[in-house]
Structures are given as structure tokens and as C-alpha cells.
Amino acid sequence: PLIRLLKQVAPKTMLECYHVRRRDLNIELASGNLDLAIDVPRTPDPQIKHAPLRRSPQVCVVRKGHPLVSTNLDLAAYLELEHIHISSRRGGLGLVDLALGKMGKKRDIVLRTQHYLSSPLLVATTDLAITVPMTFARFLLTLSPVQVFDLPFEVPDLETHLYWHESTDKDQSNQWFRSLVIDSVQS
Predict the structure, then answer these.
(1) 8 A C-beta contact, residue 26 and residue 32
(2) In Å, what is the CA distance from 110 to each residue of 28, 80, 113?
(3) Global pTM?
(4) How many Å is the maximal CA-CA distance in the chain?
């Protein structure tokens, strides 16, 4: 949606997207190397401004015809699945694992990857399961024969926020681009 909107309102604009380590994000925004960043909620920093972009519930995605899941996903079946865990970090627990841990449960993670886009083929062609935001699951449904199930336990929605440095808060071009990003995500 952002690219379509940019093509309409500023067709000659070039957009550059980079992965930046979280610990470097504030420095990159302060130095002007980054205009904006999109990430999960972060520890507050008075120099970093933000606006919420989207909340999305977590769901479980498996291939159609999965031998452990047909029409319903209960907690026992979820825990029996082998899971792909997506995280930009090399270690640590995600929202799903924290929620399961509070119940004294643990899922079987057999693959940890940094990239969402490696998962469609894996989920469609193996018995691996993936727990992702519903917004991404809708995308998976367009690419491969998969089934989407609500989680059989409570997990907080995945939130994403837009971040920028206070030095660009009043900058008209930064304000314009922030509004485009917000409009494209929330439309």
C-alpha cells in the first residue's frame, strides 16, 4: 500500500529500507541516517517520538491436510506441532513463548529464522507450523494452500509503531512521509 500511495502522490520518490539492530536504532535516527523506523513497542526515550501503526492478533498457520490439525486447534495439538519461530534476534523468547511459559508449557521450535518470507514455502510443503500476526497470515493465504487457526491460549496482539527522532518532528518532509506511512498501514 505504501508503494502504491507513493506512486500516486510522488512518483519519482525512491524508498530505501534497511534492517537496523535495535540497539542502534536511536543513534541511526538521531544522526539522520534513518528518517523513520517501524518496530514493536520500545523502551521510552524522550528524544524518540512514535505513533502506533497496527495491532494484529497472533494465529497459527499450517498446511492444508496437516496430519495433526484438521478443523480445530486445541492446546494439546498446538504443543504437539513442530514450530518455526521468526525473530530478528538470535535468541530470546517471543510473545507466544512467554504466554506459554506462564502456563508452564513450551512449544517445540525446530527452526528459528529472521525472515517472514522464508516461511510460506516451508509451511505449505512440510508439517511445520508458524505463529504469526493475522496480517501476515492473510498474505500466506494468497500464496499457498494453508489453514489459519486462532490460538488456543491468550497471547497479546503484535503491535507495531512508527519511530522518528525529535529533531525531525517538525520537519515538513518527515511529517509528510510519516502521514503517508500511517495512511498506508491503516487504510
Answers:
(1) no
(2) 34, 12, 10
(3) 0.82
(4) 55
Contact 134, 57 (CB under 8 A): yes
- H-run or E-run covering 130: strand 128-133
User: What's the chain's Rg over C-alpha atoms?
Assistant: 19
Q: Comparing C-alpha atoms, which of 11, 28, 10 is closest to residue 19?
A: 28
Give the single-character DSSP code of 156: P
Using CB atoms within 10 Å of the CB of residue 174, give its burial: 0 to 12 exposed, 13 to 18 middle, 19+ buried.
middle
Tens-digit pLDDT profile for residues 66-122: 999 988 899 999 999 999 998 877 777 888 999 999 999 999 999 998 888 888 888
| DSSP bridge pairs for 33 | none
What are phi and psi for residue 159, nearest 5 degrees? -105, 145
Instruction: Read off the DSSP letter of residue 149.
Output: E
CA distance linking residue 182 with residue 187, whole number of Å = 8
